[in-house]
Amino acid sequence: MYRGGGLLESLHGSVPEWLLLAAALVTRFGDVWVLLSITIAASWLLTWRGNDGGSGHRTSTAGREHAAVSDATPGLTPRVPAVWLVGVVVGGLAAMTALKYLFVLPRPELVAATPAALPAALEPTYISTVTLGGYGFPSGHALGATVAYGLLALTVRTGTRRVRFAAAGVFILAISLSRVVLAVHYPGDIVAGIVLGVVYLAAVLWLLERSPFDRTTTAFALALGLALLAMVASGSAGRSVTYAALAAGALAAWSIARPQLRSSSPPSSTTASRSRSTPQPAYHTESATVALALLAGITALEGSVEAVVPAAALGVLVVVPAVAVARRPS
């Protein structure tokens, strides 16, 4: 498979030091924990603002979510947690891990020069950035940035749609090009990462709008499935266990907390009659049971609580604050 090795070699050695320094900084915005942190913060903010992150035209799934919450708080504007955004991003990162171990294509053997202007205190960080191990195809930074920043451009209601997509495009392109400048990816890796990120995002959004389940359950269940696939493909390497535990923890927490949104305030007589005619979704109990069982299975398989519990706790932490905010009508 041609991945642009000739182009990378022609660029290597001719990159100015200032560009290497800039690339080392920009590339951090595509790191896994940066993408997750930004998405988690955005999901909480959207929940607080009463925006669940859905598209402007509501389909049946989104409408059912709003109806369920408004039943509990008649006459008030409902807040529906937007934590499903985190599930979409975790699923994208898990899919990327699985693809890397399916293609098993190496990274470039070239190593970017260390800029003389780089402070000594930052040298270890820079060296670790340009001497990565693992597989190179597709680019995880390109795929992850496309999913995370593309998703935020679609869901955050700040500025015009054109401005949001332009800003997301700049971030995605800058992060992707930084990987080539630092010689940790071939040009073909980042092109594949962007394309696969767009395809994944489009497919997941299509699924979320048509799923018979609520978006958060669907997003984290999909993320958990992709993470388990990544565990199989990688032999539980490459953060696949982290993604699986995070998704399972979030799915369990959401499945347990979700019914509470309907009972967060005393119902009126009208609400009571509607609740009797519209039973609680039974799948939340089953999804919580399955998620907890899988979490226990992952822990047993890994043989180390330390490898699973922190990620599962993060998954719970993602959901709980958003649910707490959602129970306070706007």
UniProtKB/TrEMBL annotation:
Residues 262-279 have a biased composition (Low complexity). Signal peptide: none annotated. Gene3D superfamilies: Phosphatidic acid phosphatase type 2/haloperoxidase (1.20.144.10). The keyword Transmembrane applies. Residues 260-282 are annotated as: Disordered. Keywords: Membrane, Transmembrane, Transmembrane helix. It holds the Pfam family PAP2. Residues 79-205 form the Phosphatidic acid phosphatase type 2/haloperoxidase domain. InterPro entries: PAP2/HPO (IPR000326), PAP2/HPO_sf (IPR036938). The chain crosses the membrane at residues 20-48, 82-103, 135-156, 163-184, 190-208, 220-237, 307-326. PANTHER family: AT30094P, SPHINGOSINE-1-PHOSPHATE PHOSPHOHYDROLASE. This is Phosphatase PAP2 family protein.
